TrEMBL record:
Keywords: Signal. This is Lipocalin/cytosolic fatty-acid binding domain-containing protein. It comes from Ranitomeya imitator. InterPro entries: Calycin (IPR012674), Lipocln_cytosolic_FA-bd_dom (IPR000566), Retinol-bd/Purpurin (IPR002449). Residues 1-28 form the signal peptide.
Length: 123
């Protein structure tokens, strides 16, 4: 699977740029299809590239997918630098029913209130 994203990113805590990124996902172990490895590349020299361990935490396959990625691990194997993204298939966001379901899942993974909406262009 491949993906691309373009949007405003803050670098070094102060520099706002329009980032253009490309990613490719692979499934290292077919017996664990929810766990992937994401290789990403910034399409400009000052954007980062690398790879992250990536999991689909929950999805209904029609409206949303809650994902989590870990950039680096601590010595004990826990995540040192991670992030979560909730994807919507609808550029206008979720219905009230799906919003309630997604918020419940956020509570379950101890990340309630940790997400910011990102407007989609629909492209």
């Amino acid at each position: 699977m491949t993906a691309s994203s373009k949007g405003r990113v803050k670098l070094f805590g102060f520099w706002l740029i329009c980032a253009d990124m490309a990613a490719q996902y692979s499934v290292p172990d077919p017996t664990i299809p929810a766990k992937m490895y994401m290789t990403y590349q910034g399409l400009a020299s000052y954007l980062s590239s690398g790879g992250d361990n990536y999991w689909v935490i929950d999805t209904d396959y029609e409206n949303y997918a809650i994902t989590y990625a870990c950039r680096t691990l601590k010595e004990d194997g826990t995540c040192n630098d991670g992030y979560a993204i909730i994807f919507s298939r609808n550029p206008r966001g979720f219905s009230p029913a799906i919003t309630r379901l997604v918020r419940q899942k956020q509570e379950e993974i101890c990340m309630a209130g940790q997400f910011q909406p990102v407007l989609q262009s629909g492209m």
